[in-house]
Amino acid sequence: MRYLELCSIEEAKEAISKYLSKYKDVEEVDLFNAVGRVLAEDIISDIDVPPFDRSQMDGYAVKAEDTYTADEDNPITLKVVGSVKAGDVKDIEINHGECIEIATGAGIPKGANAVVMVEYTEKLGDYVKIYKAVAPHENIQYCGTDIMSGELILRKGTKLTPRDIGAIAAIGKNKVKVYKKLNIGIISTGNEIISPGEKLEPYKIYDINAYTLASSILEKGWNFKFYGIVRDDKEELKKAIENALKENDIVLLSGGTSAGVGDLTESAIKELGGEVLIHGIKIKPGKPTIVGVVNDKLVVGLPGYPTSCLIVFDVLFNDEKKTLKAFFPMRHISAKGRTEYLPVSLVKSKNGYSAYSITKGSGAITSLSNADGYVVIEENREILENEDVEVHLLGDIKVGLNIIGSHCIGVDVILKEGNIFAKTINVGSLGGIMAIKRGEADIAGIHLLDNSGEYNIPFIKKYKVRDAVLVRGYIREQGFMFKRDNIDGIEDIIKNIKKYKFINRNKGSGTRILFDKFLKEHGINKDEIDGYGIEAKTHSAVAVSIVMGKADIGMGIRTVAEQYGLRFIPIAEEHYDFLIRKEKLDDEDVKKFIETLKKVKLPFKKPENCGEIIFEC
Amino acid sequence: MRYLELCSIEEAKEAISKYLSKYKDVEEVDLFNAVGRVLAEDIISDIDVPPFDRSQMDGYAVKAEDTYTADEDNPITLKVVGSVKAGDVKDIEINHGECIEIATGAGIPKGANAVVMVEYTEKLGDYVKIYKAVAPHENIQYCGTDIMSGELILRKGTKLTPRDIGAIAAIGKNKVKVYKKLNIGIISTGNEIISPGEKLEPYKIYDINAYTLASSILEKGWNFKFYGIVRDDKEELKKAIENALKENDIVLLSGGTSAGVGDLTESAIKELGGEVLIHGIKIKPGKPTIVGVVNDKLVVGLPGYPTSCLIVFDVLFNDEKKTLKAFFPMRHISAKGRTEYLPVSLVKSKNGYSAYSITKGSGAITSLSNADGYVVIEENREILENEDVEVHLLGDIKVGLNIIGSHCIGVDVILKEGNIFAKTINVGSLGGIMAIKRGEADIAGIHLLDNSGEYNIPFIKKYKVRDAVLVRGYIREQGFMFKRDNIDGIEDIIKNIKKYKFINRNKGSGTRILFDKFLKEHGINKDEIDGYGIEAKTHSAVAVSIVMGKADIGMGIRTVAEQYGLRFIPIAEEHYDFLIRKEKLDDEDVKKFIETLKKVKLPFKKPENCGEIIFEC
């Protein structure tokens, strides 16, 4: 194969599956523990199911012809010549005018060709009155009608569900041949990686991929063993790969995000006497993937970013296609010349599912938690926009309330206190309004200040939202946060503004707008502000900058300032309200959400009409 | 509660869930083994992720302002004052005109506010040429932008996916509190039940429910222990329940199908000092369900029929609603006054999924294997017909070729030899034609004899099938099967027809039509035939009747006669052909199907044009 040029995903999958099919050792397992395992044999029945003609009801086995004239007013009377229960082995036969009492599951006696349900009979000593005619074969399950001897029940390669297990039990097998579980060794790499449970050190991040890979491997029904975190050192890496190869069928490497890691892995594979089949795949994310073979076993280097790592693992190792059709209500520009695997978050909407592309990027772990699956965008596609897509699921979809809009920690508190299961997707206030319009969001948290000074309602009107209500939420305090003790108050800030090192927020954020308004009102030129050009993307990032001494002061909400132990001087208040689709007002979870909003103690001010509908459209 | 009247499914679920919530013991598990477990705590981050401003690319950390004039033709030059790798702890800062070489994942040095990707640079000694302008914040992932300290990551009650596990690892936790696995004891009941692996005895059937329940319990992440099969004997049953209660949180009983079993279970629960909460639920299937409590632990008696048993288990114990929208292309009459849980088989069609109700009834194990889920029909609904339905999934859906139509063992051989994964749904030839028309079937096996004597094509025309082809299949021989040695040939049968005890086939079957035609042609009155009224539903059931001595002779296909070691005299030949949707002719599996049909050795005669298209529409 080639490794100077990027290879296609098909080539990579083929290389992998060639080796996966090599590792197909077979073992026999007890049927009780076979669920989820993959059949290594065809299951062919050597019996008929049911193995005899069987009554489907409790009642009387009769000759149907004898009952033809029976109805409620004119019962016929038959002589009861015996009785047969489920499991009974009796050689009995009936003639005309006779019947046999029979239980569900019992064998049909000779001469009988139908069963009258007990509900339509009345027993009188040795005789029984029949109040309903039965047709021949009524209430009889015939021998072999379920499964015929010789019938193929399940094919080799089937991943066994409880229902499959039932079918195997039905034909009397209590053991099955399945493929042995694959053993996969996992090695994390990277100088910056430390293990969860250890103390966080400066400029280090916790290992994520070892855990997501191990969990995915367990979910697939394979075994894993973790060989720890290896520094960016070739000898260390070689040793770890060697150890892992001894005990496993496949070794997975992941963690390092740097471009150099790939070269390290490539050298390690070669120096261990292996061959690098693939170095670089023409997909996004996942370009840095390496596929090598050492001692006839696969050594695969996966991308370091968590979402990329998991998607590439899924694409390469997961052959069970679980897909779902969804509407993509956004616009996404795809990289040309590479197949893109776009992670999406699914929400249940009025008309099925909608798939939102995840905005935080593949480096973000929250992208990973929200990724229900991914959409494959072929390399010749440039734009994905308002269309139906096929979502490849990364596992179970979690359903619940859809809360789409601006993120606020208050929402988390409400969901927690109310014990409400919800999926929160943070797309900003305007994105929330749009999601309500499309029927995808049940609730949208919004805080949009109009030029008129009014919050939220003008935007609902402007964007022509219909069939929704605005529920008053809470008031967030915006202001300056800082840790220096020599700032006395707002006057001091204005007077000495040039002395302080600022950290600003990103353009388009409400906080940025407030800061600009503040400067304008006090006649301060923004060019005089040290750090005006340094932007942070969240309240929390501003707070952290100040705590770490990178900046002296910045604007943000009081809740975050307090969380980080910073001093806070309020500047303005903003309404964070909830736009809710009308048809969802009767939903139990939505009702609970509003009730909890009213009752719960929040780290924000609540207006008197909190939880009330303040606008309807 | 009440147990003379049938209770509603809601009451039953409430009774169960009240006890399920009692059993919520908590344990701490290692994060590596937490996938699939249910969180017993909220997971709140006490760190920011990332915990520092982090480079998303390999390149140079710069002051964005310094690069504004840079482009391909006019690079700017910056002095490289240091380098920082992922994990490096360095206190370095840049001023205007300077930059620092930076690796993906490394901390952004003080003074820098953007990263230029290495692709747009050229290093020259201590200096680097920058060929592209960057905006402030470009290629930087800021501290806390992914997860904020104090943010709720996952809520109590979440069933952990690999992605959730990743999020927990990201915030540095390597242990989580989860609910302990429930321990469930399983007891099978019924005189007619024997264990798989044992020799099949007359009038016995193999235990299925113990296996499907155990597998479902394992799939849910709980533990099970099987306490064997108990006869219909109260004392035995009491002893088994007592044993199971000692070691488990819940005891499940199942197996017996007879009406008497319920009373036995009820008495056993009471005599063990327990209380029967529910005896009978107003649902179909599942009426005989019993819910009792002994020593504050649930004892639940499930229906005996496999599909009923599994559906009732799912309804009562499975709180994770996995549903899927599908089209119901049939007509189903539902029982009034009871909520019906109709098992359905899903097939992927042109426009999403279609849900077929399973026709064999809840006693059939093949109903179970084909049941991808069930549709809930509310008690006031009488008819379900050509409409969208919500399917409650019983697990993973298996996709593959959809082969819908008349069943033939030849199809199984082709699928096996060709190693083709397919779902076969047996709805008869005409049902197959309809499924092709609706785009649900990819292939339909059909064998329909027209009055003209021509097979299949007249019916395709009559039902106005479009965009499909008929591929010539094989020839099945119909004839008489028997085991007696004193039948010499067809002349003997005709001459001595009154002497033999016949078994007939069901009305509407092709074989029945043939038999009637045979009688007519030879001037035989059907009333003279002993057993004309005894109908079997399959070829195999006819054969079994003869093998078991219930009948002497019957009509069926040669393959089945041979399978059962019966003698066979041919009467007629019929064409079993394949109707295939045109757009599927390019499908790999369909191509393989046709190729295999041509090549494979089948237990049927193949005409010369086998595998060729003989009609197009």
Automatic annotation (TrEMBL), chains A, B:
Sorted UniProt keywords: Molybdenum cofactor biosynthesis
Pathway entry: Cofactor biosynthesis; molybdopterin biosynthesis
Entry GO CC: cytoplasm
Residue ranges of coiled coil: none
SUPFAM superfamilies: MoeA C-terminal domain-like, MoeA N-terminal region -like, Molybdenum cofactor biosynthesis proteins, Periplasmic binding protein-like II
Molecular function terms from GO: molybdopterin molybdotransferase activity
Signal peptide coordinates: none
Domain MoaB/Mog intervals: 185-323
Organism: Methanotorris igneus (strain DSM 5666 / JCM 11834 / Kol 5)
Gene Ontology BP annotations: Mo-molybdopterin cofactor biosynthetic process
Protein name in UniProt: Molybdenum cofactor synthesis domain protein
Domain of life: Archaea
Pfam family, one: MoeA_N
